């Protein structure tokens, strides 16, 4: 098993521990989570993080702080002083916030940035002896043939060749890992979107690319070697119609974690353009949608615990 989550038992069985799959960790006296600026020698992980049940990850530090403020308000866990300190203070690689059983962490742009954060996050949850943790990526994406502002819950993450795989070179050899996500969790999140009825929510395959410009068939990068017609053909490929949105982290996220979901809002329709031309206000309101949907899901779950 590669992922950081136990696949033993089913969802109804309680106490699903976080698993690491690395025999070398046992012999380490201390573990330094370098990019999070945390270590097991000077922090009591079980005390600080042992109650975590939900982890929300997203690209920007600012968005993850705003999610913490939002969810704190929704759950009545607001800090009267409105202070949510950055747990990763001392590094500007990632930002982390915690309120009640919810941890919120930024992951930056792209697969390598997400991967480094996930290695350290999974070890953090393992050292903290957390159980039954659900992780959701709340992010942004480009839509294909969707009204901007639509929220897409990912069924499966596919690569730029429309294949459900995540490839990584380990010791000079290509290792291929599956990008299956938890279907039941995706359906529950879709249902939350329907219950809220505040914005369009759909389910589909999300394409994960290595680049924002040529990698996503944009015509507005510094370099471009194809025509508008070739771009449109690529985006409207038959396989692509089952993939309503494009982003840059879902594949490694799906490959490394189980009991996870990806919820991304579409910021624009890529069949109509490439530039992010909506106002800051509109963009801001779109970016709140995955937070609202995931917040609704967390509230429902916490009521049933
Ligand atoms: C969505 O938006 C970012 C690029 O602007 C990237 O992190 C992603 O997946
Ligand atoms: N994020 C992406 O990766 N692509 C887009 O088009 C918009 C957001």
What is the H/E order? EEHEHEEHEEEEHEHEHEH
Spans of at least 5 consecutive residues with low confidence: none
Total number of helical segments?
7
How many strand elements?
A: 12
Ligand inventory reads: 1,4-anhydro-D-erythro-pent-1-enitol, uracil
Helix content: 25-40%
Q: What characteristic shape results from the CA principal axes? A: globular
Assembly state (oligomeric): single chain
Strand order of the largest sheet: 6-11-10-7-12
User: What is the terminal separation in angstroms?
Assistant: 28 Å
Structural class: alpha/beta
Overall pLDDT:
93
Strand content: 15-25%
Biggest β-sheet description: 5 strands, mixed, barrel
Radius of gyration: 19 Å
Task: Give the helix/strand layout.
Elements: E1 32-33, E2 38-39, H1 45-49, E3 54-58, H2 61-74, E4 96-99, E5 102-106, H3 111-127, E6 134-143, E7 151-158, E8 165-170, E9 173-178, H4 183-196, E10 201-208, H5 228-235, E11 245-247, H6 250-256, E12 260-269, H7 280-304
This protein binds 1,4-anhydro-D-erythro-pent-1-enitol and uracil (URA).
Uracil binds next to strand 6 and strand 11.
């Amino acid at each position: 098993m590669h992922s950081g989550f136990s696949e033993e038992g089913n969802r109804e069985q309680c106490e699903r521990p976080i698993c690491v799959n690395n025999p070398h960790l046992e012999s380490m006296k201390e573990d330094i989570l370098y990019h999070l600026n945390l270590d097991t020698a000077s922090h009591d992980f079980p005390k600080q993080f042992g109650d975590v049940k939900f982890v929300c990850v997203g690209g920007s530090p600012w968005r993850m702080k705003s999610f913490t403020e939002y969810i704190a308000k929704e759950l009545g866990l607001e800090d009267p002083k409105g202070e949510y300190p950055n747990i990763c203070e001392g590094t500007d690689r990632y930002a982390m916030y915690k309120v009640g059983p919810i941890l919120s962490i930024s992951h930056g742009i792209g697969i390598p940035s997400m991967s480094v954060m996930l290695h350290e996050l999974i070890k953090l949850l393992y050292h903290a002896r957390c159980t039954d943790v659900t992780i959701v990526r709340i992010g942004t994406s480009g839509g294909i043939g969707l009204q901007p502002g639509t929220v897409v819950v990912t069924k499966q993450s596919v690569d730029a060749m429309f294949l459900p795989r995540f490839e990584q070179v380990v010791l000079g050899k290509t290792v291929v890992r599956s990008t299956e996500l938890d279907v039941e969790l995706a359906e529950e999140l879709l249902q939350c979107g329907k219950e809220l009825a505040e914005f369009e929510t759909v389910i589909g395959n999300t394409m994960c690319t290595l680049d924002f410009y040529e990698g996503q068939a944009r015509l507005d990068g510094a370099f471009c070697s194809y025509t508008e017609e070739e771009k449109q053909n690529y985006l409207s490929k038959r396989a692509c119609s089952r993939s309503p949105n494009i982003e840059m982290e879902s594949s490694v996220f799906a490959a490394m974690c189980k009991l996870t979901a990806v919820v991304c809002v579409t910021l624009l329709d890529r069949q109509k353009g490439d530039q992010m031309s909506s106002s800051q206000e509109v963009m801001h309101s779109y970016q709140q949608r995955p937070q609202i949907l995931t917040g609704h899901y967390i509230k429902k779950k916490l009521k049933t615990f």
